[in-house]
């Protein structure tokens, strides 16, 4: 099992702490909680547990296609984006894949399970942890069948330049390289529509989306995949285990796109609290912080002998250490943007940690 954020129970057990006293900065979930309509819908749909969900998830797929104004046949919903990372990997079955590091762990895990040769493409501090056109040169040298890229990236929270992304899409289409763009956090960027509009004119582009972070439903699980390769989407639907999305998640997915007030409130919260954490964290001379685009911040602790993860755990704050990400080490951390008082507690605790060594 890869190590992820949000492992409150595991950490509480390991350190003998009551799990309900920990504040979780390690998973990047919208602190507004799930929309009220979602909770009401689930309560009112309890009878659904007595029936199988539609094995083709027709209404859910229609809702996703309508929201993105794309072809119904271009869409496949899944039990979180995670199910679809595995589905698309198994379907494409690449011989050789390029992974940008640091990046989300499940791409590697999915590729390893089918024996793909994995070539790492390190994003380094010198290039601001951002990919640029040099990636295309590497693609032409290495000639992989497939590339994964997350926009914005996890754990860095950085959004690649849109012109660069356009060049990457065009290059991969021309060279017949499967490009899997993980837009799991893109809903947090109010002005960014991502690359779904491009699937109508491409065959090698696969877009992953997650609904678990923005709509705070990681326990319910819901994500989707969109691609112009509609034969491929049909094949993946055909091969998948039936009923992998539970009835509640399927029903909820039909209404989430209409949650305009919730979406606007989330953008408003993020604007102020992302700014708060960015300015407060940047003010610590002990830290180097990268400017966030989404609902989490990535930073390096430059003070030797300070183990921020353990120090903050003593304050009941769980942050994400990044030492298990390829290309990073124990100096790097990630924190989610939480609600105002939680963010203030984080900053106050960090002031104490740095004041006392
Ligand atoms: C970049 C990225 N993609 C996908 C996922 C998985 O999302 P889901 O909860 O929809 O399976 C995560 C979860 O942290 C993630 O960080």
UniProtKB/TrEMBL annotation:
InterPro entries: Aminotransferase_I/II_large (IPR004839), CobD (IPR005860), NHTrfase_class1_PyrdxlP-BS (IPR004838), PyrdxlP-dep_Trfase (IPR015424), PyrdxlP-dep_Trfase_major (IPR015421), PyrdxlP-dep_Trfase_small (IPR015422)
Top-rank EC class of the record's enzyme: lyase
Source organism (scientific name): Xenorhabdus anantnagensis
A Pfam family it matches: Aminotran_1_2
Ranges for domain Aminotransferase class I/classII large: 22-349
Enzyme Commission numbers on file: 4.1.1.81
Keywords assigned by UniProt, alphabetized: Cobalamin biosynthesis, Lyase, Pyridoxal phosphate
Superkingdom of the source species: Bacteria
Catalytic activity: O-phospho-L-threonine + H(+) = (R)-1-aminopropan-2-yl phosphate + CO2
Annotated gene: cobD
Protein name stated in the entry: threonine-phosphate decarboxylase
Task of the protein: Decarboxylates L-threonine-O-3-phosphate to yield (R)-1-amino-2-propanol O-2-phosphate, the precursor for the linkage between the nucleotide loop and the corrin ring in cobalamin.
Key word Ribosomal protein present: no
CDD domains tied to this protein: AAT_like
Pathway in which the depicted protein is active: Cofactor biosynthesis; adenosylcobalamin biosynthesis
């Amino acid at each position: 099992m890869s190590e992820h954020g949000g492992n409150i129970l595991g950490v509480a057990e390991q350190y003998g702490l009551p799990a309900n006293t920990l504040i979780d900065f390690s998973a990047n979930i919208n602190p507004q909680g799930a929309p009220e309509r979602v909770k009401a819908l689930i309560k009112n749909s309890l009878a659904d547990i007595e029936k199988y969900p539609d094995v083709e998830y027709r209404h859910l797929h229609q809702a996703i296609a309508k929201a993105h104004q794309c072809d119904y046949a271009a869409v496949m919903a899944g039990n979180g984006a995670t199910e679809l990372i595995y589905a698309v990997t198994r379907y494409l079955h690449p011989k050789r894949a390029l992974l940008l590091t640091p990046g989300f762990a499940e791409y590697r895990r999915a590729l390893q399970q089918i024996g793909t040769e994995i070539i790492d493409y390190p994003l380094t501090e010198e290039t601001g942890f951002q990919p640029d056109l040099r990636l295309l040169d590497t693609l032409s040298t290495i000639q992989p069948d497939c590339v994964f890229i997350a926009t914005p990236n996890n754990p860095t929270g950085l959004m690649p330049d849109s012109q660069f992304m356009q060049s990457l899409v065009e290059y991969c289409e021309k060279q017949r390289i499967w490009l899997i763009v993980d837009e799991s956090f893109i809903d947090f960027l109010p002005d960014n529509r991502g690359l779904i509009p491009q699937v109508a004119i491409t065959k090698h582009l696969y877009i992953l989306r997650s609904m678990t972070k923005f709509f705070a439903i990681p326990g319910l699980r819901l994500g989707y995949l969109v691609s112009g390769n509609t034969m491929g989407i049909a094949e993946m639907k055909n091969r998948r285990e039936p009923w992998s999305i539970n009835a509640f998640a399927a029903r909820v997915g039909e209404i989430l796109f209409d949650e305009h007030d919730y979406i606007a409130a989330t953008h408003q919260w993020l604007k102020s609290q992302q700014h708060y954490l960015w300015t407060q964290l940047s003010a610590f001379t002990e830290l180097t912080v990268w400017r966030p685009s989404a609902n989490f911040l990535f930073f390096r602790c430059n003070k030797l002998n300070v183990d921020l993860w353990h120090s903050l755990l003593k304050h009941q704050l769980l942050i994400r250490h990044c030492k298990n990400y390829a290309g990073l080490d124990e100096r790097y951390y990630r924190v989610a943007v939480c609600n105002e008082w939680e963010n203030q507690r984080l900053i106050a605790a960090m002031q104490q940690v740095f004041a006392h060594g």
